[in-house]
Amino acid sequence: MFSWTSFILTFSSFLLTVTAHYYNSPTSDSPSSSSSSLPEWKSARATYYAEADPRDAVGGACGYGDLERGGYGKATAGLSTVLFEKGQICGACYEVRCVEDLRWCIPGTSIIVTATNFCAPNYGFPADGGGKCNPPNPHFVLPIEIFEKIAIWKASNMPIQYRRIKCRKEGGMRFTINGNGIFLSVLISNVGGAGDLMAVKIKGSRTGWLPMNRNWGQNWHLNADLKNQPLSFEITTSDGLTLTSYNVAPKDWDFGQSFEGKQFES
C-alpha cells in the first residue's frame, strides 16, 4: 500500500543528500581556490625624495635606465634590504596606502608603484633611530610626487601598508642588448604579470636554449657568440609562469638596440 508519509520522508532524505553533495563539492568560485584574490596587507614605513634627486636618471639599482623613457614614470619605489632581495624583486608591483595617522594621511587613497631601486642601509644609525632602511625594517622610498598622492609631505616618515599586485604594462616586454664580442648582456624591462624575473633563457637560430645569469637587477648575461642569429627569449617570473618570444631580435641585431617581445597577461 502506498504511503504518503514514507514517500515524503524518502524524498526529503534525497534532497538533503543532493544539497550536502553540492555545497561540499569544490568549485572554482570557492575562496580557497580563487587565484584572483589579493594578498593581505603588510605593515611598513615610507619616506620620499625630492624631485631634484638624480637617482632616477640611471634607473637606480635595478638598472632600468631613464625611468621616464622606459615607461615607469614617477610611480616607482626604492626598497629596503629585507624587501629588495638582492635585486630579485626588481620589476615587482605594489599597492601602497597610508594608515594610522589622521593628521597626514589622505583618506581612501592608494598608489601602485614598481620596484626600481634599492634603499641602502645606514649602519651608523640603529634600525629604530635613523637607519630607516636597515634590517629588519620594511621600507619604501618614493618620489615626492607619488608620496603626496597618499599623504601630506610634512608627514615625512609615514606608517603605510603594502601588498603585491600584478603589474599592468603597456606594450610588450623590452629587451635591450648590450655587451661586446662574446659577452652578451640583456636588460629586460616593462614586464607584466608578476613583474620580477626568476629565470631567463636565450636562443639563437644555431643554438639550443642557453640559460642566462643575473648580472644585477634585471640585467642578465652570458658568454656566447650569437651574432648574425635571430634571438628568442624564454622568461620565467617569480610566480612560475613562463613566456616564450621567438625571433625577438632579427638576424642583424646590434649592441645598444632594444626590441619588443610578448607580454604576460595581468
UniProtKB/TrEMBL annotation:
Keywords for this protein: Cell wall, Cell wall biogenesis/degradation, Membrane, Secreted, Signal
Domain of life, source organism: Eukaryota
CDD domains on file: DPBB_EXPA_N
Family matches, as SUPFAM superfamilies: Barwin-like endoglucanases, PHL pollen allergen
Biological process annotations from GO: anatomical structure morphogenesis; plant-type cell wall organization
Domain Expansin-like CBD positions: 182-261
Short name of one Pfam family: DPBB_1
Ranges of residues in domain Expansin-like EG45: 59-172
Record membrane topology: Peripheral membrane protein
GO (cellular component) term, any one: membrane
Gene3D superfamilies per record: Expansin, cellulose-binding-like domain, RlpA-like domain
Compartmental location: Secreted, Cell wall; Membrane
Stretch forming the signal peptide: 1-20
Record carries keyword rRNA-binding: no
Assigned protein family: Belongs to the expansin family. Expansin A subfamily.
Primary role: Causes loosening and extension of plant cell walls by disrupting non-covalent bonding between cellulose microfibrils and matrix glucans. No enzymatic activity has been found.
UniProt-recorded name of the protein: Expansin
The species this protein was found in: Lactuca virosa
